[in-house]
Amino acid sequence: MSKVTSIAVLGAGLIGRRHIEQVALAPEASLYAVVDPSPIGKQIAEQYRTRWYPDFAAMMKEGRPDGVMIATPNQLHVENGLEAIAAGMPSLIEKPLADDIAGAKKLVDAADKAGVPILTGHHRRHNPMIQNAKEIVESGKLGKLVTVHAFFWLMKPSDYFEPAWRRRAGAGPMLLNFIHDIDLLRYLCGEVEMVQAFQSNAVRGYPVDETTVVNVKFKSGLLGTVNVTDTAVAPWSWEQTTGENPAYPHTDQTCYFIGGTRGSLSIPRLEFWTNEDKLSWWEPFVVQRTVAPKQDPLLLQVQQFCRVIRGEEKPLVSGYEGMMTLKCAVAVQKAAATGQTVRIGDL
After folding, report:
1. Which residues, including other chains, have CB under 8 Å from residue 268's CB and lie 6 or more apart?
2. Dist. CA 188–CA 259, nearest whole Å
3. What is the DSSP letter of 177?
4. Could you tell me the residue ranges of all domains in the chain?
5. Distances (CA, A) of 141 to 114, 130, 272, 273, 288
6. Can you name the CATH fold of 5-123+297-316?
7. Radius of gyration for the alpha carbons in the chain, expressed in angstroms and rounded
8. What is the pLDDT along the chain (347 residues), one digit of tens a residue?
9. At what angle do helices 179-189 and 128-139 cross, to 10 degrees?
10. Is there a common fold for 5-123+297-316 and 128-294+327-346?
C-alpha cells in the first residue's frame, strides 16, 4: 500500500463529522487533526485521539498534514481555502465551493496560479451508481440525448426550521439540495447554457425558497426540467431513492430520468428502456437493469482525495467544476427573481 496520507478536517459540524468518520475509516488515510474552535470540535478530536486546533494558523505553527478537508460554514470556504492554497496544501472544500461566484473564482484562480489542487465536495459523483450511469450515457446506448428530468420532492418537518438561519434567504433547498442535483445533471448531460425559473414560499411563508421549478437548456441542445420542493410528502428525492444515507427511509422509486433517441435511463434504478425491434411507440419494450455495488461515496471521495494528494490522478470534482455548478445555482436564483432567462456565460 502507498504511504498513508494525513488529512486534517476543518469544521466539526454535521458534514464535518461525517468527513472525520470517513477519514478515520479509510485505510490509506490518517486523521491528522480536527480544526474547530468550539468545545464540540475539541471533544471530537479527543474521541478520535487526534490533535485539536482552534484554527488553521494554529495547526500550521506545529506541523502540517498532507491535505485538508474544509467543512466550515459556507461564508468561510474562501478564507479557509486561500489559507490552504497559500500553504501549498491540497484541499477538498465542501459544496458550495463559495457563497458567491466571485469567491469561487478567487479560489480557482489562486489554486491554478499556485499549482495546488482543490476539489469540491460534490460527493455524489463518487457513487458507483452514478459512475455506471455515466458509462451508460457515454456508451451511446441512449442515442442522442434530448430531455432530462430531476425530482427533489420531500417534506422537511417543522422542527427542522427551529434554527433561525434555516428560515432565511439562501438556506432553502435551492442551495442546500438542488446544487447537488444540477451538479449531477452537468456531470451526466454536459454544460448548461441557460435557465428559466419560478419560485414559491407559499406554504410556510418564511423568506426562503420552498418550491422551485427550473427549465434548463444545455449547450448540446438537450432540454431539461428540475422540480424542487421541501414541502411535499413524497418519495422522489436522491436521499430517499438511493439509500445512500441511512438516516432517510429508502424507497424503490426514481429521482432522475434521461431520455434519448434510442432509449431512456432511470436513476438510481439504472433501468435502460428501449424498443425490442423498431423504434416506435407501437413496439414492445426491452428493459435492462444494471446493479451498482453499494459503497459509501463519502469514503470513496476521501480515497480519491488521497490519490490526488499523492499525484496519482486528477480530481473527479475540481474547484472549477464546483464553480460551474455554483454558477448554475446562482443563475436559477437570478432567473426566479427577475422572471428572465439567464445565460450561464453572462455571470
Report:
1. 129, 238, 241, 242, 254, 255, 256
2. 12
3. I
4. 5-123+297-316, 128-294+327-346
5. 41, 16, 9, 10, 11
6. Rossmann fold (3.40.50)
7. 21
8. 468 999 999 999 889 999 999 999 999 999 999 999 999 999 999 999 999 999 999 999 999 999 999 999 888 999 999 999 999 999 999 999 998 999 999 999 999 999 999 999 999 999 999 999 999 999 999 999 999 999 999 999 999 998 888 888 877 888 788 999 999 999 999 999 999 999 999 999 999 999 999 999 999 999 999 999 999 999 999 999 999 888 899 999 999 999 999 999 999 999 999 999 899 999 999 999 999 999 999 999 999 999 999 999 999 999 999 999 999 999 999 999 999 999 999 98
9. 40
10. no
Q: Given strand 118-120, what is the order of strands in its sheet?
A: 51-53, 29-35, 5-10, 67-70, 91-93, 118-120
Report the distance separating Cα 120 and Cα 317, nearest Å.
6
**CA-wise closest residue to 11 among 62, 61, 59:** 59
Which set of grid coordinates corresponds to residue 164?
433561525
DSSP H helical ranges for 140-212: 173, 179-189
All three cell numbers of 152:
427533489
- Name the residue type at position 329: A
- Return the residue matching grid coordinates 449547450: 219
| Of 32, 28, 26, 23, the residue nearest 2 (C-alpha) | 28
The three grid cell numbers given for residue 337, joined into one nine-digit string? 427573481
Which CATH superfamily does the domain covering 128-294+327-346 fall into? Dihydrodipicolinate Reductase; domain 2 (3.30.360.10)
Q: Is the peptide bond before 235 cis (omega within 30 degrees of 0)?
A: no
DSSP label at residue 318:
B
Prior bond to 128 cis, omega within 30?
no
The Cα–Cα gap between 347 and 246 comes to 37
What nine digits make up the cell of 15? Answer: 458534514
Q: Are 35 and 50 in contact (CB under 8 A)?
A: no
Q: Whole-angstrom Cα distance, residue 52 to residue 39?
A: 10
Adjacent-strand bridge partners of 289: 271
